[in-house]
Specification:
globular, about 65% helix, mainly alpha
């Protein structure tokens, strides 16, 4: 988000001062205490330079595949991984990560990086996995183009039109798979589908996967104020999904994402994060993560956003509980919106640890 580094800097300074004053009143050694508290290894946390920015949470099969793709440029490990991924939520997550890896490689080595994806498409043109990863890759490319030439530019629209065509190919190759249609949700946002057309696409998604958390996250953006909706429309969409969620679903966390997307760009007022609206959304997300399966593929996304809100609300114990589950991976909103996801995550983690220790917490008493 814009000016996030300024916000983090101001918040960090404020956190240090709060901790310092509290500890001074308690007769503690504040400066040394804060320095020790922010040492990640005391809590078993990963050093900043070891945080994985590719994934929101652990996925050993995917990590191994990404490493092999980068090392050999052989597309077959990716094909085998997706062919063996039947769960729709997990497939969506892995398609995003594979496409993101190819896009990152190409940015680092123009003309050469991500060769495995191009070869995959040429050598296996009827492979549904190749087609859907290619479509998501084009969405990534369109996003990068928009950052340079602007959303809605000719180049931006040409890439998105190509992505839409590839999505159609992927859908024909795997008729029951909702993933191509979920990818198209981002394309619809970029191309500015009419609301009626977007709702028709959404009906196609929900006919195949009515409670798909990843799909709901993708659709939510269309209804946000910064795209083609409003705060009210986004809130209504999120709350309808939460109200209709089956047991053990992550959908009750969706309103928290809607709140996040409509926060003011810069805000250092703690009361906002302790307001009734934010508190209710946070409690809904906490309810979701405590009830949903621990290995739900989208669970880390919810936990990362919870960390962001819980730290700002000074709910240290709850923040530390979420950190215990997600630490080591930072490929998720809100960190991915910034220029340096690892540094931004680490700043919030340091604040959580400092706040936890200022209230008497220790590594031994950390919640899990």
């Amino acid at each position: 988000m814009d000016m996030l580094f300024l916000l983090l800097a101001l918040t960090m300074i404020g956190a240090v001062l709060v901790v310092f004053l509290r500890r001074m009143r308690a007769g503690a050694q504040a400066v040394g205490g804060f320095s020790a508290a922010t040492d990640p290894q005391r809590y078993g946390f990963a050093p900043v330079d070891q945080l994985d920015v590719r994934l929101p949470g652990p996925d050993e099969e995917l990590t191994g595949t990404l490493d092999e793709l980068a090392r050999t440029q052989d597309w077959r490990p990716a094909q085998q991984l997706l062919a063996a991924t039947a769960d729709h939520e997990l497939r969506w997550q892995r398609v995003q990560s594979l496409a993101g890896a190819a896009s990152h490689e190409l940015a680092e080595r123009p003309g050469e990086g991500g060769r495995w994806l191009r070869t995959w498409r040429v050598e296996a043109p009827k492979d549904a996995g190749a087609a859907v990863v290619h479509a998501e890759f084009l969405v990534h490319q369109a996003r990068q183009t928009a950052a340079v030439s602007g959303a809605g530019s000719d180049e931006h629209r040409i890439i998105l039109e190509e992505a839409r065509s590839v999505c159609a190919d992927a859908a024909l190759l795997a008729p029951g798979d909702p993933t191509p249609y979920i990818v198209e949700l981002a394309i619809a946002r970029g191309l500015g589908y009419r609301q009626a057309d977007f709702e028709e696409l959404w009906s196609t998604v929900t006919a195949r996967a009515p409670h798909h958390m990843g799909a709901h996250l993708a659709a939510l953006h269309y209804w946000c104020e910064k795209w083609h909706g409003s705060k009210e429309l986004a809130d209504a969409f999120a709350h309808r999904a939460a109200a209709a969620a089956p047991e053990r679903s992550l959908l009750p966390a969706l309103p928290l994402f809607a709140v996040f997307e409509h926060l003011p760009e810069v805000n250092t007022v703690r009361s906002l994060y302790q307001s009734d609206v934010v508190t209710k959304a946070v409690e809904g997300a906490l309810y979701a993560v405590r009830g949903a399966p621990a290995d739900h593929p989208v669970m880390p996304h919810v936990r990362h956003l919870l960390v962001w809100f819980l730290v700002r609300a000074e709910r240290w114990a709850d923040a530390m509980e979420q950190l215990a589950h997600v630490d080591g991976h930072v490929g998720a909103v809100p960190w991915s919106y910034g220029a340096n996801p690892a540094a931004e995550y680490a700043a919030h983690r340091a604040m959580a640890v400092a706040g936890w220790e200022s209230s008497g917490g220790t590594p031994a008493t950390m919640p899990h």
